[in-house]
């Protein structure tokens, strides 16, 4: 019962991780530049994401521009696009597989099949967490290195946006969920290896037949 509750908790964490992963992939605020100008129509906030660049104006207008060219983008943005999409796909597969393998569901067949499905879903969550953690770390490193570079003007420096923090938290949720599912599947199997089932030794039929004799038979 405790293992089923732990799996359900891991499944909730995985759901939050999947939704956060998708949101971080689509949000345009991976890095933010706050630049207050003297003119009222000057852009005050510029945001750059994986797929588009957006700008907030002081008049309340909001405009976005899609990044159509892939080869013209920096390497870390191209890598972030690929790994975040893979993270979303793997986490979605993990949700489908663990739904079958969870002990609180009636899908998946016998116990061994459900354990294998649960372990496969946990591996998908762990891989999705790794694929989500690598681009956010690399992207943050590029932002910090450019921010500390003295040769770059102040107007061209950026700070990490909300999408980066969302990606970090989602990757952590997916990693924790993957560890929970993998450990819950191996716990029972490891117990079976350490403590094998006891073999009951029954007395032989000859002893039973001898014990059935009574002294009255010899009188």
UniProtKB/TrEMBL annotation:
Keywords: Cell junction, Cell membrane, Membrane, Signal, Tight junction, Transmembrane, Transmembrane helix. Pfam families: PMP22_Claudin. GO terms for cellular component: bicellular tight junction; plasma membrane. Residues 1-20 form the signal peptide. It comes from the Eukaryota. It is a multi-pass membrane protein. InterPro entries: Claudin, Claudin_CS, PMP22/EMP/MP20/Claudin. GO terms for molecular function: structural molecule activity. Its main location: other. PROSITE patterns: CLAUDIN. Belongs to the claudin family. PANTHER family: CLAUDIN. Claudins function as major constituents of the tight junction complexes that regulate the permeability of epithelia. This is Claudin. It comes from Pomatostomus ruficeps (Chestnut-crowned babbler).
